[in-house]
Amino acid sequence: MIAGLRPYPVTKESGAPSLGLVPRHWQVRRLRTAVEMSVSNVDKHAHEGELPVRLCNYVDVYKNDRIHSVMPFMRATATRDELTRFRIADGDVLITKDSESWDDIGVPALVVDSADDLVCGYHLAMLRPSVGLLSGAYLFRLIQSTGVAHQLHLNANGVTRYGLTHSGIKSVWLPVAPRDEQDLIVRFLNHADARIRRYIRAKQRLIGLLEEQRQAVINRAVTRGLDPGVQLEPSGFEWLGDVPEHWQVVALRRHWEVVDCKHVTVPFVDEGIPLASVREAQAFDLRLETANRTTPEWYERLVEGGRVPQTGDLVYCRNVSVGAAAYVDTPMQFAMGQDVCLIRSKSENGRWLNYYLRSPAMARQLAMGLIGSTFNRINVADVKNLIVPVPPRKEQDRIAAFLDGEVTAIDQAREGAEREIRLVREYRTCLIADVVTGKLDVREAAAALPDEPDVVEEIDEPALGGGPVDGADDLDELLEEVEA
Q1: From the centroid of its chain, how far is CA 448?
Q2: What is the pLDDT of residues 122-132, one digit of tens each?
């Protein structure tokens, strides 16, 4: 579909650096001359005497390319005047106006179908295209393009929180194709986008399946061992099931020492000694590159009482991400930060224990212990009492080595899928920018496309179900399909 496309034969300077050359017969207009803009002041509260409405809020726009009346909107109230001024209509484009990050400014969503009680919420701008000049679907693709988005990002004011003023939105330059040409551009981009989304959805499902495989491999190895013919016996715990009969099933404290952190608040410095806290405990192997740092004086206080971390220890998270643990495989000097503890043993394999701590069996045990708890955290006494199946040391070593190889292969496959998703998203971004600014003439290609329903597949979250993975097998195949 892309192969054979050429630029428009005659172009002109757009006058906007971010747009570059545009086809000579296109217009280049300020947004204020092509769109009616409204900025809502309807908040999330219900006020007595006002009319009940459903509120399309920031998150609804940020997370969805299309707005449908059947979405689960927030309930609120508005005055009759607000309902008249800020009721959204089919073909409107809503954009995010305020955010804590500049690149979350100007994220668009197209209103596909509305309802009489559906109004635009706070922190959004409602853009209604001028009839006969712009279609909502074309305006949506324009705002998605880097040339227009870049202008919105530059116009956003702020330091810790960014926002667009009315003039900052209205002053944006738009490349405006003739009305019939807009429909062809939208048709082409929707067709390409549908295939790209199907590809991403397939890769996300593959990632979900790889994670399921990863967890299954770990769980079987740390609860059954590597010998398929081993004699099993009941562990005595429903969440653990049967284990090899020659393994012990005991409280963690029977084989490992648990050392709590110092419960003190320390100053952070730019250059100093790293602190391993909750964030650093997320990866299997400890990484300290982005850790907060403290002074040598505070380090000495933090490691008092046998709290010096050593190679082979685990840094275990007791709060927020309860159960995450990082294996210390570095001789680098560091101290424990807040909400973690050390798990150590001179006789057992720390990598084997970390695989068990990250297994579904341990997750089930933790879930049972945290039922009814207001806070997702456990104390040191709870950590010491965690039930652990313990193989002989040589078997621990074999299991850990086996899982290092298996998990690495699975993780590499996952990283490959994630990389392909990033590449195809970058490809889509470039494609939209080239088409809506006239760098590629898609009129003939779009006219030859089959009719397709305008359905947008959700792709932000990986699907975790089983079944075959559909869609293109790799990035090259996807691009060949789009270019065919």
Answers
A1: 36
A2: 899 999 999 99
